[in-house]
Amino acid sequence: MASKPTSFSIQLTLMVVFLTTQVVLSADTPMPSDKTQLGQWFSNNVKPLNNRKGTLDSQLVAAEQGQTVIKPLNNRKGTLDRQLVAAEQGQTVIKVRQDGKGQFKTITDALKSIPNGNKKRVILHIGPGTYKEEIVVPNNKPFITFYGTPGQMPTLTYGGTAKQYGTVESGTLSVLSDYFVGANIIIRNSAPRPGLNTVGGQAVALRVSGDKATFYNCQIYSYQDTLLDDANRHFFKDCYIQGTVDYIFGSGKSLYVNCEIRTLGDSGLTFITAQARKSNKEDNGFSFVHCELTGTGTGAYLGRAWFGYSTVIFSYCNMDNIFNKAGWSNNNHKEYDKTLYFGEYMNTGPGADATGRSHLTRKLKYAEVQHYLGLGMIEGSKWLLPPPKV
Question: Which residues are bridge partners to 274 per DSSP?
Fold first, then answer.
């Protein structure tokens, strides 16, 4: 005869059922192939802070009561960073207004007012207008948000070039700190489009080096080297990015969702990406999902190899008829051919035609691309929150 279940075994069974349920609820769900379902996917996977604190609080309560809490790895991945929760619970808003009706007239002065080692979310509510500044968010000032009002988006602009500053330091906005959020901001490098023989004409609009940076509804303009996706994890949603050569480049580990990527390809070679993964030991790459690839000209490339392990994937994207048939380039480094990871999955539009595609192209299967379709690629469930409202 089987023995009766003990009180402990009943509690353990209930705990297993509870934890299993939690794993299902917090699992990283890949984006759907149907773009009309993207909004629902986002709201299901990126919930407001108040809807997510309960999980963390219940764990703390259990711990304080002397309970043993056994959490599976997948469930732990879904828990917001504790320092982020603490930061978001103590927000401060600083108004930046050119007309003098805010605390500061310039973004740079507002940033200077934030103490080093800041541990609370500080929102710079930037009024409409054009702010001609070279702006650096230093690495010792995390949890900063640049927020513009939709319909009255401010423009941040500067004209730095590689010839003057070096490419990396030429950015109009350089984000070196962690947990940065940009929302409803226009970022522009006003330097002229470099000619074919121009030396040092590269001009970065945005450089992002800090970890866990998010950009919602931002517009980013330049020509060569527009966006330096420099290092660490980033998320871009509903953004517009425009350029000519290598205009999304760097060693970032980034997810681009529902963005318009516009190539100005009227003359000369044009490349969207130049990703900088250097070895199979590095964990970085760019994933573009449900993006619109638009532009001018007919000779653009999806990407070229900056280093031997460059990793770029386009999935569910709509591609205009602006591309060279080959699509990808090893940048005259045949030795890179076996290690590059240039992937395409279920893209549409005339530019997605596989006829004549380079041998570098990986036509991915769902099992291969799944990792690049969800927040798990960037561990986003630990740090992503919906767009701010001020």
Answer: 249
